[in-house]
Amino acid sequence: MTYPSVSHADLSGRGVLITGGGSGIGAALVEGFVKQGARVAFIDIAEKPSRELVEGLAKDADHKPVFVRADLSNVDESQAAVREAAQHLGSLSVLVNNAGWDDRHEMAEVTEDYWDKSQAINLKQMFFVSQAAVPFIKEAGGGAIVNFSSISYLLNTGRMPAYTTAKAGIIGLTKSLAGKLGPDNIRVNAILPGMIITERQKRLWLTDESIAAMIDRQCLKRTLDGTDLVGPCLFLASDASAAMTSQTLVIDGGTL
């Protein structure tokens, strides 16, 4: 993977918290912020890959990343994890709400329990993690929240109605939080990735044919991976976007 060569000096030493940072896109984001010299903590439910990521990054990091285990769908647990992470970091300036569950499902098969689980993982936790993080960001004098949505809710895709509902809701949450937190010098923006190829997706549902079909639809004729989201996320977290809030940034290779 190739990481952005640009350096955001203001991120060096800043406290950054990333949800879902143990694998996939989240792991790329953790590494990207570590390479900027930030003090990074991440929350994930999976212990083994998270600890392996920490050890893999520790040897070359200015600040060893911190892993906090939590089930983000549990509000008390997720908010306790935010407080623990902030304590480890000393201060918190940036929150990246990356965690999600992009499970495929048929409309006829969705139960009430499944719907509630999808909303809890994809949308509900984003609000309550932000709620817990905001006092620390205020204490630091302001900062940035970056929420990860998806272009999927704009594609009329029929195989994930619970997921796409949540991803649309994240845009509403982003704009509401931006309005509320702007006076506290906290900027809130969202990133909408396109088809980002992860090992999990290749294992569960992506095929050579489906990948080729999306590349054909994109303007950029290559696959996208987690590193393609690092630069945009660093930009939104840094002073380079100091006057930007309540906005959505589409990173999809030109699909839309």
Walk me through the topology:
Elements: E1 15-19, H1 24-35, E2 39-44, H2 47-58, E3 66-69, H3 75-89, E4 94-97, H4 112-139, E5 143-148, H5 161-181, E6 186-193, H6 199-204, H7 208-217, H8 227-237, E7 248-251
Parallel strand pairs: 1-2, 1-4, 2-3, 4-5, 5-6, 6-7
Helix pairs in contact: 1-8, 3-4, 4-5
List keywords for this structure.
alpha/beta; Sc_DH/Rdtase_CS; SDR_fam; NAD(P)-dependent dehydrogenase (Short-subunit alcohol dehydrogenase family); Rossmann fold; 7 strands; 8 helices; oxidoreductase; 7-stranded parallel beta sheet
List SSEs in N-to-C order. Answer: EHEHEHEHEHEHHHE
Uncertain segments: none
Instruction: Give the biggest sheet.
Output: 7 strands, parallel
Total number of domains: 1
Q: How would you describe the shape? A: globular
Question: What's the level 1 CATH class?
Answer: Alpha Beta
Q: How far apart lie the N and C ends?
A: 25 Å
Kindly report the average pLDDT value: 95
CATH architecture title? 3-Layer(aba) Sandwich
CATH superfamily, called what?
NAD(P)-binding Rossmann-like Domain
What is the CATH fold-level name? Rossmann fold
Structural class computed from helices and strand pairing = alpha/beta
The total count of helices amounts to: 8
Strand content: 5-15%
What integer value in Å does the Rg equal? 17 Å
Question: In total, how many beta strands?
Answer: 7
Strand order of the largest sheet: 3-2-1-4-5-6-7
The helicity comes to: 40-55%
